[in-house]
Amino acid sequence: MPELFTFFGLIGHDKTFIYITHMLLSAGIAILLVKVAMANLQTVPKGAQNLMEAYIGGVLKMGTDVMGKEAARRYLPLVATIGLFVGIANLIGVIPGFEAPTAFLEMPLTLALVVFVYYNFEGIRRQGVIKYFKHFLGPVWWLYWLMLPIEIVSHFSRLVSLSFRLFGNVKGDDMFLMVILMLAPWALPMIPFALLTFMAFLQAFIFMMLTYVYLGGAIAVDEH
To answer: What pLDDT does 223 receive?
Structure first.
């Protein structure tokens, strides 16, 4: 099956080049959107400011449901930034002539590593090294030998859960889009495009939700 046509592919066909250019494009759009939203702040928000405030409010509400409002506000910058970046990166792949950088494993894996390292760091910082890693042993002392490897595997599997879920879904969407455009190149397939747009937002939502869940579990060790 032929590769997706991309405008950047006219400059170079190297996979790394295609990935980096689309990743930088996604980051640039995210930064531009934020700058436009903050360029002329008003008491009654309009346009981009209204859009960004609605987005931030939605992310905060999501985090509040997981870990409470105070903790959700603390980690809001990280989660909202990741969600905005991932959402835009996913949406780029819906536009013919562009490819989602999240369809390359490098980006989802890097973001997953960032979340993995950060939530463990926060758990250690908030609970202390001994107290944090003690919950890996479970509540029953005579099952320590069994629970420790299970917990370690469980935590590292989160890297797979975050990265491969995002990569697999976005890559599958790209393949689906390629087939649709091959079958109907001159007609705009509105229903498939609407579905892919929904999936782009959904994958960003799932990534943010899992980030909040992992952070919430790391800072609330006493409750386990």
So the answer is: 44
